[in-house]
Amino acid sequence: MNACAGSGALKPETPPWPDAGIDAEIDPAIDAAGPLQDALRLSLAQHSAARVWIAFSGGRDSRALLHAAVQLVNSLPQALRPQLGAVHIDHGIHPNSADWAEHCRACCAALAVPIRVQTVAAAPQPGQSPEEAAREARWAVWQQLLAPGEQLWIAQHQDDQAETLLLALLRGAGVKGLAAIPRNRVLGAGQAVRPWLHCTGAQIAAYASAHGLEWIEDPSNQNTALDRNYLRQRILPLLRERWPAASATLARAAAHCGEAAKLLETAGADWLANAAGSAPERLSVSGLLSMPRDRRHAVLRHWLAQRGFRMPNHRRLEQISQSLLAARADASPLVAWSGCELRRYRDDLFALEPLPPAPVASMDWPAGQPLHLGGRLGELSRPASHAASMLDAGALQVRFGLTGLRCRPRPDGPNRHLKALFQQQGVPAWLRPYVPLVFAGEQLVAVAGVALCDGRLTALCWRHALGVTAGLTEILGDAESLAPEAEMSLPGAGSGTQ
């Protein structure tokens, strides 16, 4: 249902009634408010909320949304009124951003609406624009803000939807990207809602003018070096000259793509079962290669979306098939893009956050305390054991990335190559440089997550945040020691395989 339908997708940016001070047959404030208020009522009717937060930048659209939300809530019976609040994100990019935050505080104070102002420092990642970094920072704040039963209202409208669709077309997006802006989406414990997505910018401008609202004009919105501003200032006005309903029809096309994307997502979930890897959150390389190219791409997109990663572009998807899936089984190929690394080991495909540089420095491990390895490497500790050895209380040293070592998992068993232990446990070759090797003097006494050596330590715990646990056990103890006969059954033991 479209609460703004029929009110005219082609209203000019200035309201079509006489200037203030000249009598008119229709009260501009009432005429402008109708479809916008109807859209807000519809949002509350479809998704009841204990609290509604307004994403309040201080610009025209969010200023109008804040004002309209206050009017709506005050018109409801007391028992049906959600609590109302505003949240302003100060990105610190513009030199006047602190003044803008004060303006937002003043607006909310005048309307008796509580406001939260959150300052963020959005440093772009490699390959990421400042605008993308700022957007991700905003969404992170909003996600943490929402409690169960709460909504965040965002003032994006039909013209924003048209711009987003055009940008997606120009970068060659698939149907999910062409679906552009969803009206509702789960966000943290609550929900993000765009109640005015079917309303026009002209309707919002008319409302703001009719109510005499003041707002912030961000000068960056006039910078046509930015793609969205170029479309808004140069391209869409030309399209509307020839096709007056351009924004409405583009938004409708985005809605059709959204329906197709939902169908594809449902199918992708079914296809995903045919490409399950050897453990949860992995995919089978052979299963993917057995699929037609378009289905394989759909499965990869669905899997990555489930894992919370950004979608790869078409070039990256082709690279995944050609360079990663088709690589030799003993290779360690890598395909990476912003915030994601795809790696394989044997027949498994892994998706993980980019691994940090492999550590090279050794670390002394004083007795009686955990050892913080730094960053995502986490910490090592020696849990209390029922049969503690002298080493459990002594000073040790931790090293990384050494090769050619041997470890005896059982005092009465064979002395085994470290590579063979990694193979038997299924630790990928690209993960091994991050595994802490624990020494007493020059003797290897533990391979964290894999094995204790010669019974010199009775227990070892390694808690890390590398994002993959393939073949690694968090806590090692007597029960985790490998059977001595296992070496004979190691896949590729003594060969060049990984």
From TrEMBL:
Binding site for ATP: 57-62
Main localization of the protein described in the UniProt heading: cytoplasm
This protein's record includes keyword Phosphoprotein: no
Domain notes: The N-terminal region contains the highly conserved SGGXDS motif, predicted to be a P-loop motif involved in ATP binding.
Catalytic activity: cytidine(34) in tRNA(Ile2) + L-lysine + ATP = lysidine(34) in tRNA(Ile2) + AMP + diphosphate + H(+)
Family annotation (InterPro entries): Lysidine-tRNA-synth_C (IPR012796), Rossmann-like_a/b/a_fold (IPR014729), TilS/TtcA_N (IPR011063), tRNA_Ile_lys_synt (IPR012094), tRNA_Ile_lys_synt_N (IPR012795), tRNA_Ile_lys_synt_subst-bd (IPR015262)
Keyword field contains Ligase: yes
Name of the gene encoding the protein in the UniProt record: tilS
Source taxon at top rank: Bacteria
Protein's UniProt name: tRNA(Ile)-lysidine synthase
GO terms of biological process kind: tRNA modification
Cited Gene3D superfamilies: 1.20.59.20, HUPs (3.40.50.620)
UniProt GO MF annotations: ATP binding; tRNA(Ile)-lysidine synthase activity
